[in-house]
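Support reply, case 0932

Customer input (verbatim):
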Amino acid sequence: METAGTRERALSSDKARLIVEAMRESVGEVGIAGSTFERVSDKAGVSRGLLHYYFGSKERLLVEVIRRDTEIRISEFGSELEAANSVDELIGAFFGMFERTMSEGQGYVYMVSELFVAGRHSPELAGELGELYRTARDAFAAILERKQAEGVIKLRFDADAVLAYLFAAGDGAAVQMLTDPSYDIEASTGISYGVARFLLTTD
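Our regenerated output:
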């Protein structure tokens, strides 16, 4: 009988990592709809049955890709936030993360959007996506609280609430950019910067 621990060890195997990376590359090349198990298994050099064994469905494979990408983002972006010595540097780190995410093309934003839609019909998937958001908010909120203790920023509201708002603003801007090619992100950058500064200072 397979246990949660057994599956966790399986997902840490070399073959599972190859599958996750193949899915990530495939999404970048042909999008999510075109990233079938057959295509991903060919890219990973494994049988299609192995994908079903490890993940069961495309949505569950997307969860694993997003989970691993989220861990990388937490580590890389967290380091940038930790290195910030002023409000401007901290806000710049947020804007930099957004720009990098949007430059990926059919990457992280597309995968999160796909999983969100699938989660409407699967409470389990919705819960897993929500857990990933909570993990990122908790990690970055802890950094904001440390920055406040160091005197770098003065949070106007609770750190978790500030992160939730900034994430929502970034997600909303991403959707507009992806669905409306004429959307001018530069026109709203000044407003976004001002709102971020308002949230991170009390001056």
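We compared this against your earlier run and they match. Two observations from our side: Residues 1-9 have pLDDT under 50 and may be disordered. The chain has ten helices and no strands. Please reopen the case if you see a mismatch on your end.
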